[in-house]
C-alpha cells in the first residue's frame, strides 16, 4: 500500500470545552497518512493523478475553522469523514496534537485510523 503523508501541519483554530477557549485561536498540529496508489501518477510523471497534499493541507485548515468543536475527538472523526469523502480515500490516519494544553506536557492529542487498506 502506498501512502501520502503530511507531517507537522500547524494551524490556528478555535477548539476547546472551556468558554475562554472559545474566544481564542489555538495551535493544532496534524500528522496525516492517506492511502493512495501512486503508480498512475508516477507512470507518466502526472501531477493530475496525485493526491495533492497542498490542497489537502488547505482543506484541513478550512474545515477546522469552518466547523469549530469542543473536542479533538470530534474534530478528528468529522475531518476523517470529510477527507475520505472529498478525496475518495479508502484509508487514513489522523494524529492531532494540542501543544501546551497541559503545563507539564509538550503535547496532548488523539490518533485515529479510519477505513480499510486496499
Any chance you could write out the topology, listing elements then pairs?
Blueprint: E1 3-13, E2 26-35, H1 39-43, H2 53-66, H3 72-87, E3 91-99, E4 107-115
Antiparallel strand pairs: 1-2, 2-3, 3-4
List keywords for this structure.
GTP Cyclohydrolase I, domain 2; 4 strands; alpha+beta; 33% strand; four-stranded antiparallel sheet
Q: Summarize this, please?
A:
The protein has 118 residues and is of the alpha+beta class. The chain has helices spanning 39-43, 53-66, 72-87, and strands spanning 3-13, 26-35, 91-99, 107-115.
Structure, described:
A hairpin with a 7-residue loop joins strand 3 (91-99) and strand 4 (107-115). This protein has one domain: GTP Cyclohydrolase I, domain 2, CATH 3.30.1130. The relative contact order is 0.21. It has helices at residues 39-43, 53-66, 72-87, and strands spanning 3-13, 26-35, 91-99, 107-115. The chain is 30% helix and 33% strand. The protein is α+β, with helices and mostly antiparallel strands and 118 residues long.
Tertiary shape:
elongated
Q: How far apart are the first and last residues' alpha carbons, in Å?
A: 7 Å
Order of helices and strands: EEHHHEE
The side-by-side strand order for the widest beta sheet comes to 1-2-3-4
Contiguous helical run count? 3
Radius of gyration: 15 Å
